[in-house]
Design goal:
- The chain has about 350 residues and is α+β, with helices and mostly antiparallel strands.
- It is about 25% helix and about 35% strand.
- It has a six-stranded mixed sheet.
- β3 and β4 form a beta hairpin.
- α4 packs antiparallel against α5.
């Protein structure tokens, strides 16, 4: 009996440890969940499916055409949070539903906004609402995805292509082109999407593609042909063609070009956050300069004689003349600074 007692205790301990281990892992919701929730766009921790639906809805609102859209974003635990947008031709009614979030407050928020905007930076893409009633900074983020290849420890792409089963080609890409390829792969949702091959019409010969993507400790192999009529195949074929072209015509490096929002203006110095979005700017409103080192982002103090020509909140692009101090916040000197307008 004593032996049996200890076996029960051991079983209970193992069950508790297993539960704790599972709770620390990201839960993956099923495709059936997305279908049941009538999702138009699904944001799975930055991996987005239905991005075309988001783009089309943005264009519809821009043309003042009525329409609805549902964005489903999943928490780390795998719980769905719903954002419903309903445009009536004048304003956008927003319903933010996180009743299914087991760690949330279980509430539904409703408010109105004036405009839906799209912002694309070198390393991220976001859709957000402005002119929102009762919302901090009158700005509300709807969808954002990041594709900064510099934040990955390893990113490698091997491409084989040709009329046979993919003739091996050695492709070397410069950093600028690696960034573009990584961006296109993320926007194509390469982790969850897969290009599909179709049988080519009789007498037609088309290239076959074999793409191996290695990122950090994981990898993905994609195999398809140019006869694919599916929309997912087209985006991957475009990526493959870009890789082939870039290997022969490398993009001129622009490492000394920086985009960002101005967070602070002093006599001969401005502080910027690189590749921030408009909602990011609102969330950083109360952050002091000395606290920036604790944030996940890149910040720069820019020394320039033209500092007084700019204002806090301006979006700018600048060409770095000299790096004075590495790190974040770093410090650079620049003379060519341009304001970016919508």
């Amino acid at each position: 009996m004593q032996h049996l007692k200890w076996l029960w205790i051991l079983a209970i301990i193992l069950a508790i440890l297993t539960a704790c281990n599972e709770s620390n892992q990201t839960a993956e919701p099923t495709k059936e969940n997305d279908s049941e929730l009538n999702a138009d766009v699904v944001n799975m921790h930055g991996g987005i499916s239905g991005l075309d639906n988001m783009k089309n809805y943005f264009q519809k609102v821009k043309k003042q055409k009525k329409g609805d859209l549902r964005v489903v974003s999943y928490t780390i635990e795998g719980d769905p949070i719903l954002t419903d947008l309903a445009y009536d031709g004048k304003q956008i009614d927003v319903t933010f539903d996180y009743t299914r979030d087991q760690y949330g407050d279980g509430e539904v928020e409703s408010f109105q906004c004036g405009k839906l905007k799209r912002e694309e930076n070198p390393t991220n893409l976001s859709y957000y609402l402005t002119g929102c009633e009762g919302v901090t900074g009158e700005t509300w983020g709807v969808l954002e995805t990041s594709y900064d290849v510099k934040r990955q420890d390893v990113f490698e792409v091997e491409l084989r292509y040709g009329p046979k089963e993919g003739e091996k080609q050695t492709i070397q890409l410069d950093d600028e082109d690696k960034q573009e390829v990584y961006k296109q792969l993320v926007l194509a949702n390469y982790l969850d999407s897969k290009p599909t091959s179709d049988e080519c019409p009789k007498g037609k010969q088309a290239d076959n593609y074999l793409m191996k993507v290695k990122i950090n400790g994981g990898g993905r192999t994609l195999n398809w042909n140019a006869c694919g009529s599916h929309e997912s195949s087209k985006s991957f074929t475009d990526i493959a063609e870009y890789i082939i072209y870039a290997s022969q015509h490398p993009t001129k490096s622009s490492e000394n070009v920086v985009y960002g929002y101005i967070l602070e203006v002093k006599e001969n110095q401005i502080l910027i956050g690189e590749d921030l979005t408009a909602p990011d700017l609102v969330s950083l409103e109360k952050v002091k300069g000395e606290d920036l080192a604790n944030l996940n982002g890149t910040f720069l103090y820019v020394e320039t004689e033209d500092a007084q020509e700019f204002s806090k909140g301006d979006k700018i692009v600048l060409k770095v003349d000299e790096v004075l101090e590495e790190g974040s916040p770093g410090r650079v000197r620049a003379s060519d600074i341009q304001t970016i307008t919508e």
